[in-house]
Prior knowledge:
Low-confidence stretches: none
Number of strands: 13
Helix content: 25-40%
Mean pLDDT: 97
Largest sheet: 7 strands, mixed
Oligomer: single chain
Number of domains: 2
Number of helices: 13
CATH class of the largest domain: Alpha Beta
Distance between the termini: 22 Å
Structural class: alpha/beta
CATH topology of the largest domain: Aspartate Aminotransferase, domain 2
CATH superfamily of the largest domain: Type I PLP-dependent aspartate aminotransferase-like (Major domain)
Amino acid sequence: MKIPFTNLQAQYQDCKQDIDAAIQRCLDISSFITGPDVTEFELEFAKYLNVEDVASCGSGTTALYCAMRALNIGPGDEVITVSHTFVATPEAIVQCGATPVFCDIDPDTWLIDLDQFETLITKKTRAVLFVDIYGQCPDIDRVRSICDHYKIAMAEDAAQSIGNKWKDRPVGSLSDITCTSFSPVKNLGGIGDAGAVSGSKYYMDEVRKYRDHGRTGRYDIVEIGYNARIDNIQSNVVMAKLPKLDGWLERKREICNYYTEQLSSVIKTPVTVEGNSHSWCYYVIQTAKRDSLKQHLNDVGIGTNIHYMRAAHQQPAFAQWSRSLPVTEQTVSEILSIPCWYSMTDSEVDYVVDNVKGWKS
């Protein structure tokens, strides 16, 4: 049996009629950047997230950058974040001229270590930018309590967790400002780069300014901004998929809960923080003999991936902000992502389970 790591075609086929019609409409009226389609998408997504406003962006990366600018993060400021993430997270902090302060992670959930987070706060700390790694968020109530106590902004990188709920409240509505990605490999993906920021209308107006060259009007450039606008085709594709998302996630939860039930006795499996519904962007297992397991699964036709093989602080570009993060460093050397796309059949899921169990370490 051949099981790829992911299957992007399934999402398209589920929404093919709506996606094809939306793309054709953009072509027919030659409407490609901003305009009514983008406004409609932002309204629909804000309604789904139960949040005051949404500002879409050209990518998840630019969403992070515009969010940091909206929070007025700049030179001399510190932003606490994690190193176990895609580099876009700390990159956005550096792009604003601020200093990323890397915090270690919990060894079981791989989320920000909230005990260490509080010890890293200084007079220069302006915000925390935590990451909902693999589809769940940390203890939001505790993060909020810490941020309120120290009067710092609460920013969330939810690129992997849209569709997750914390105590029945949607991710996207929990923090002062939340960023997501519609990269094609996400649970809610476009057919190219796209992203969004959610929060109050005040912050979203700021994001809209920075995503469009610092403009407040067509000829009014009040600050240095960025070209970070979403295109109409991406907004329409994501909008076509949005009504399907919750159903897709229910199937992913079935698959991933089954993985945990079957594999937790033979390998380290993910731990869900109580309060999360989890959106399972990726299902990640951990072993000191990761490379052996990866090769074994490859040999039997099962695709895998690693999210992420090197932490941000281990990358040359972030060398000046590097510090010892022992849990992060061990984690990235041992984790392995296995297939968990929602359209997997039961026999495909069992094939993955049987072959992880059958691996001789």
